[in-house]
Write a structure and sequence with these properties.
Elements: H1 2-14, H2 30-45, H3 48-70, E1 76-77, E2 80-81, H4 82-103, H5 106-113, H6 117-120, H7 126-154, H8 165-189, H9 193-209, H10 222-229, H11 232-245, H12 254-281
Antiparallel strand pairs: 1-2
Helix pairs in contact: 2-7, 3-4, 3-7, 4-7, 4-8, 4-9, 4-11, 7-8, 8-11, 8-12, 11-12
Length: 287
Amino acid sequence: MAEQAQQSIEVSNTRDFPPKGEPQITNFNRIGLWSLYIKEIRRFLKVQTQTVWAPAVTTLLFLVIFTVALGRDGREVLGVSFGTFVAPGLIMMGMMQNAFANSSFSLLAGKMQGTIIDLLMPPLSNAELMLGIVAAAITRAVMVGGAVALAMWLYPGVELQVAHWWAVIWFGLMGATMLAIFGFLASIWAEKFDHNAAITNFIVAPLSLLSGTFYVISNLAPFFQAISRANPFFYMISGFRYGFLGESDIGNTDEALLGAAVGVGALNIVLGFLTYQVLKSGWKIKS
């Protein structure tokens, strides 16, 4: 027995171990990424009444208020009833706001509670960490969009009929992705929940409400039309509305819609690259 123990010790001493600090997972860490994604999904599903269904009720209240105030006497916009015109914009607005809320929480909560090490220590690259959190935020946005669409569909006087599926899918995903990435960037910058709330109240909410959700920008003065066209939320909401109605403020030609689709995709690429570089630098996270 003593000889066997001595032999096992000699084998363990001669076994080759990798140098300390050398990464062993050099390829794409699919298991780690999936684990992070599922963790983020379970986090917001534990309180789904607040994270998924409550936004549907809030958005439905917007619809009720504006249709009662502005949709009387059979008022039509872009050839449809006012409620049908507003519904797609409200769906898109709910998706974007909740994508931002979800992705802006994880890193910030970790910094506030001292548990950010749980996100930084696992063998995940910066790209995998960002991708997992952003993908979970997009998933929540899609769930909220489905819940809001169901509420709109049940509301009398609103007709949700898809005219162009590609526009609904593309602009819906691009809008959710843009706000998910922006929320992730905001969580890196923020040092307390007040900072995050300030971005929501002074940037996200105004851009959402002033993006043509409740009106067509052709009713505005030329100066304010130019301001609206500088708002990226306008293209997300108008493109999403085009998918349902077949008409939008952007323009109904293939060139106008294709240009808007390419533009929002390029904007997301630039925003994603910028956010990745900030995360990679360790600013306000590792420094």
